Amino acid sequence: MTQTPTDTLAARPALPWIRLDGPEPFVEGRLCKVCGARTAEVHLACPACGARDSIETYRAPTTGRLHAYSIVRRSYPGVPVPFISAIVDLDDGLTLKGNLVQVAPEPEAITIGMPVKMVFGDALGRTDKDGASYVAFFFEPSA
After folding, report:
1. Do 44 and 52 contact (CB within 8 A), yes or no?
2. Which residues of 46-73 are buried (b: 16+ CB within 10 A; e: fewer)?
3. How confident is residue 4, by pLDDT bands cut at 50, 70 and 90?
4. Torsions phi, psi of 107, nearest 5?
5. For residues 69 and 8, what is the distance between their CA atoms, to the nearest angstrom?
6. Kind of pairing, strands 12-13 and 26-32?
7. How does strand 38-39 pair with strand 26-32?
8. What's the CA gap between 63 and 68, in Å, rounded?
9. Are 61 and 90 in contact (CB under 8 A)?
10. pTM greater than 0.85
């Protein structure tokens, strides 16, 4: 089947653990049934205990707390700065790295331990070679 100009290209996940096959995007986490370690990346064995055939997937929570951050003021050409690169500990123990948005990129506006929620959106206008957009996750402060 050929595409016509009116066809739209499906959005693609910016990372392999972002799932777009449900009503809403979500992060698919991986839990080791032997030791309880959590990760988003796919591994042949648990990265914590080495157990094989012990990993199950689950829908990661969308809330957590800011663990660490860096305000990036210089980057590659085409990447708008400043932005806040953040490490977030989700409520279930999964740790993810993403950008913190909806907050000023100034130290006075950011607090370690602040509650955040995961939101999904366009990956800063990036597209693949066919013009399909990417969906990424971001973190924003929550009440």
Report:
1. yes
2. beeeeeeebbeeeebbbebbbbebebee
3. very low
4. -55, -30
5. 36
6. unpaired
7. antiparallel
8. 15
9. yes
10. yes
Distance CA 46, CA 53 (A): 9
Residues in the chain: 143
For 32-68, write each residue's pLDDT tens digit: 999 999 999 999 999 999 999 999 999 999 999 999 9
What span, in angstroms and rounded, lies between the C-alpha atoms of 102 and 79?
A: 17
Beta bridge partners of 118: 139
∠ CA(56), CA(58), CA(61), 5° rounding?
Answer: 145
DSSP for 35-86 reads: T--EESS--SB-TTT--BS-EEEEEPPSEEEEEEEEEE---STT--S-EEEE
